[in-house]
Amino acid sequence: MSPEMIGLSFILLGLFIVIGKWIRVFSPLLQKLFLPTSIIAGLLALVLGPEILGRIVALFTSDDYILTNGFVPPEVVEVWSELPGLFINIVFASLFLGKTLPSLRKVWIIGGPQVVMGQMVSWGQYVVGLLLAVFLLAPVFGVNPMAGALIEISFVGGHGTAAGLSGTFADLGFEEGADLAIGLATIGILTGVVVGIILINWGARKGYAKEVGGQQGLSSNGRNGIVELENRDSAGELTTRPESIEPLSLHIAYVGIAIFIGFILLEGLILLEAFTWGPWTDTYLMIYVPLFPLAMVGGIITQLISDKYDKFRLIDRKMINRISGFSLDVLIVSALATVSLTVIGDNLAAFVTLAVAGVVWNVFAFVVLAPKMIPQYWFERGIGDFGQATGITATGLLLMKVADPDNKTPALEGFGYKQIMFEPFVGGGLFTAASLPLIFQFGPVAVLIFATIITIGWLLFGLLYFGRK
């Protein structure tokens, strides 16, 4: 990969993002789906790349024709394929930087029901996926049993986690799992928004959703993702003078420190395993764990140190959001643009089965279990958990905005607090990253039993503790 080709790769990435944005601006259908520009841009790059346009052109021309790889040179595709594994570390290192970390007691009082609900749904996705893997996907379709982890990785983790684990998939001999995971993440976002809006309309008719109205309150610019001139806010606060150091540079450096701390932690765990339980049990897990969940821990450590010693409060959350948002956009576009449709086609039955099963489980958990586990405002709170469990955190926020546009319920605050006790473990957290190595080392049945116990534990806790309130 030459420097020139890396530069061209980012230029083309930016071009697709701009085109994707303008497509969304002039597409009412995409606006109604609230489809992010990064998804549109990634799908557009996929269509115009070697996987679709290139294959079509190759059917009618010789191999040396200029468009046999579409409009995207193979060298650019090679660069793009490496970007998700790099930028996922930035996204997760940024999760808690610039945030004031509340006490766990406050988190539990306000967000406890949503913590329990989110954990139960996420662990339940492992149960559903592993049941399918053990009894259907592996014996009937010959799919790797590690496919049992794909629902949680893709639906709760989203494109970022799915793409970030591509190296782990490859190391464990399940290379096709990365393409299936990214495909499932796309299905998750689409169904999360569409099914979520259907559920909100159902809840409004039934009288469960009493605060609905956000969708009608969006202006045309709000629907197409453009902020009106009179309502535009600052993208970040200048916590340092630019002649001293550019604030963006400083914040990128803090993100880098968080990632470095995560790297040190991961290397320490690998070293500890190599001298302790690894040789004792002949079981090695940490060598397969990616960096990004430890980068998130590094971000927490960095923020704790900043809270204690930085009297100037130099880390601005808005600036961190811009860095994280940019990284997530690059990650999603590059991941979607490099999906192998051949792999999905070869495993279509398993792909469809996992997608349908994941959506059915999420709808069941929201419609049947949420009213019994969330004592107050179950619909507004639960719809956010449904959105996050089917797509990404942004999907949950979107659905809560439609169901409770004026924040008259504690749903949004509880959802924010939930992430502190949720994301470190599932949805791209420690267990999400370790799930594939665990299945590889101990087999799907052992992990299925473990996930079932955890799911039942969270379910009973929600029913018997919060449900009684």
From TrEMBL:
Presence of keyword Metal-binding: no
GO molecular function annotation: glutamate:sodium symporter activity
GO CC list: membrane
Record keywords: Membrane, Transmembrane, Transmembrane helix
Ranges annotated as spanning the membrane: 6-26, 33-53, 83-102, 123-142, 180-200, 251-272, 284-305, 326-344, 350-371, 420-440, 446-466
Signal peptide annotation: none
GO biological process, one term: L-glutamate transmembrane transport
InterPro entries: GltS
PANTHER family on file: SLR0625 PROTEIN (PTHR36178), SODIUM_GLUTAMATE SYMPORTER (PTHR36178:SF1)
Protein name as annotated: Sodium:glutamate symporter
Origin species: Alteribacter keqinensis
